[in-house]
Amino acid sequence: MNPVPITSLEEAITTFREWLSHYSPNTVRPYEYLFGKLLEVQADNPNLNGIEVVASFYEQHLQVPAFFRPKTPTAKLKAGRLLRVVSLLRGDEIPLKCKFGSSFIVIAWYSEIQREYSEWMLSTNKTVITIETRTSRMRIFFAYMEQCRIYKIQNLALNDFVGFIGSLCTSGYSSQGKYNILYTVRDFLKCPYVNEKLSCNPMPLLCCMHTNKHERLPSFYSAEEVQRLLGIIDRSKPTGTLSYIVILLAGIYGLRSKDIRELKLESIRWDINQISLIQKKTTRYLELPLIAEVKWALLDYIKNVRPKVKDPHIFIRTRLPQMPYSKNDHFTYLINPYFKIAGIDTTNKHHGLHSLRHSLATKLTEMEVPLNEVATILGHSTANTTLKYIWSDIQHLSLAAEDVLPHAK
Q: Which letter, b or e, does each residue of 43-74 get, where b requires 16 or more Cβ atoms within 10 Å of its Cβ?
């Protein structure tokens, strides 16, 4: 789960200064100037919380609504520094790259109620992954509330919920995506802190939701295409070395990006050629054979690319601050360019690391590996989860259909 939200601007600045200790004085100087200005605004407006202080300063000095993209490059740099302060204030990690727009708009008005919802989920024994996922989905709802200029839950009316549902229908989400968002909103409304503030009962609008789970399939690629992808990577460059091993781990073992990020040096048992880890999503223990190609690619990365820092994680950023990759890093930028270079058609198909999981599942199915074994390899908690990866295996579905006797007339 995210760290406990920092409630005061002073605490956020102290934490930020620790983070800045890795940087040069030229980088630190504009931040220190900014910290002084923010503290001045807070002194003049003691009733504002830290996020509201930043929002006020943002609008006054950058001449755009908080927290939208400014018009000039210089203003954009200043905005990025302010967004990093906001990230700390809402309990997130400090991002190296900042995104403008709705993901930050919702913070100023709804951070308290979102925190209450997170704490309620924690008290009901929801997993860390579930809490993070639902918190992220709720930002879509909060962004819609902000768009309607509704800043308090008690001001919501039934028509507002009807409008939100309508907005999802025109937003390009799949039926499964819309269902997930509305399911999370329904769960949010069950939170006692939220429910007692509602002045209407929107539950009847959210009680009968249907979804087509097979409407949008995870994309997959053939073994030949994956080999072509690996073959065009220039491993003489640090980025190429990193990309190669990350793609290998996803393509050969089907590891999720979060499990790759969390791999530790101690996870590699060089003496018995084994990789062991506890999966972040399912918390299940997994042992994998360390095949030669992966072993040498790992050694190449650790010896020649990985920064020499005292950190147990295998994968460390090469740029300052040299630290493990954050939860927001899905390594998409490491794989996407190579699809184009390799001439692989990605039209109407996903082409991130997760598509390699689906590719592995498809290949295993073609090899007639039993479904429960595929589920184990992919780290699924149940075989039912695996079905959505392989249900499109038309060849095997056709063979199964041939074995079904026709109904007697």
A: eeeeebbbbbbbbbbbeebbeeebbbebeeee
Whether residue 95 has pLDDT greater than 80: no
Residues 252, 255, 256, 258: is their CA dihedral positive or negative?
A: negative
Average pLDDT score over the chain: 80
Instruction: Report the distance separating Cα 112 and Cα 116, nearest Å.
Output: 6
In-domain check, residue 217: no
* DSSP single-letter state for residue 267: G
Handedness of CA 256, 275, 225, 232 (dihedral sign): positive
Q: Among 399, 238, 388, 212, which Cα is nearest to 307's? A: 238
The verdict on 378 and 290 lying in the same domain is yes
Mark whether 349 and 284 lie in a shared domain.
yes
Residues 306, 225: Cα–Cα separation, whole Å: 28
**At which of 175, 206, 237 does a domain end?**
206
Q: What is the amino acid identity at position 60? A: Q
In the numeric block, the tokens 């639902």 are attached to: 134
pLDDT value at position 2?
A: 38
Position 378 confidence tier, pLDDT thresholds 50, 70, 90:
low
Q: Which residues pair with 36 in a beta bridge?
A: none
Q: First and final CA of the chain: distance in angstroms? A: 59
177-219 pLDDT tens trace: 888 899 999 999 999 999 999 999 999 888 766 655 555 555 6
Q: In what order do the strands lie in the sheet with 274-278?
A: 268-269, 274-278, 285-289
What is the 3-class SS of 270-335, one letter each residue? Answer: CCCCEEEEECCCCCCEEEEECCHHHHHHHHHHHHHCCCCCCCCECCECCCCCCCECCCCCCCHHHH
Instruction: Scan for tokens 């807070």, then name that residue.
Output: 42
pLDDT-derived band at 373, boundaries 50, 70, 90: low
**Residues pairing with 286 in the sheet:** 277
Q: Are residues 144 and 269 in the same domain?
A: no
274 - beta bridge partners? Answer: 269, 289
Same-domain status, 305 and 393: yes
**For the whole model, what pTM was predicted?**
0.62
Q: Are 206 and 192 in contact (CB under 8 A)?
A: no
Please check whether residue 409 lies inside any domain of the structure. no
